[in-house]
Specification:
Blueprint (H helix, E strand, L loop, with lengths): L13 H5 L1 H14 L4 H6 L21 H4 L4 H31 L8 H13 L19 H31 L6 H12 L1
Length: 193
């Protein structure tokens, strides 16, 4: 079974957030450890030898594994509380922190002077679009805070899709709660306070 320690939050600094590859690698690793391998993690909770071996179990082919492979309710609850929700909360904390960084002014932006120079030059440019219709085209360089904000929006969308899929599998295997993953995570957060 996956351990919650494998999804420990990195040191949250603006430098971490602006290193988009590092941020994406953290999110990808956390998702692969818990969400992408949710079936294997849940299978690890199943203890078939609890009641001992039943020779009659081999007399007939078992095609309905769901009904035969019920996972212990306590094991499921512990997995959700100690591994799944902890991992989700860690990723949420990282995304929320980096979203805050993306909306804050960035005094250390290495391309700030270049963008300001280009902006001043473009304001002075006189364009006669009748002579050259392509001369008005300008592609300003995106600030790294804008790039980070876009990345955070995309990662939050991915996070929602992955959590919905994971939660449906957890409900299927653990006997389901009829709440959504958002409600279940909010309930877990309230219990943690």
């Amino acid at each position: 079974m996956a351990q919650a320690s494998s999804t420990q939050a990195p040191a949250l600094t603006p430098k971490f957030c602006f290193d988009e590859r590092l941020l994406q690698d953290f999110l990808r690793l956390s998702r692969s450890t818990i969400d992408d391998s949710i079936t294997q993690n849940l299978n690890a909770l199943f203890t078939p030898a609890r009641n001992g071996f039943d020779p009659s179990s081999t007399a007939m082919r078992q095609t309905h594994s769901k009904s035969q492979r019920s996972i212990d309710e306590e094991a499921c609850r512990e997995f959700k509380d100690n591994v799944l929700f902890t991992s989700w909360q860690t990723r949420s904390d990282v995304l929320n922190y980096c979203a805050g960084v993306a909306t804050s002014p960035d005094p250390e932006d290495p391309d700030l002077v270049l963008r300001q120079t280009e902006s001043a030059r473009d304001r002075e440019r006189v364009v006669d679009e009748r002579l050259d219709p392509y001369s008005a085209r300008f592609f300003p360089q995106e600030a790294r805070t804008e790039s980070l904000a876009s990345l955070i929006r995309n990662q939050r969308s991915v996070e929602g899709i992955i959590r919905a899929r994971t939660w449906s599998i957890v409900n299927e295997r653990c006997g389901g709660s009829f709440s959504s993953w958002e409600e279940a995570l909010d309930d877990w957060r309230r219990k943690q306070q």
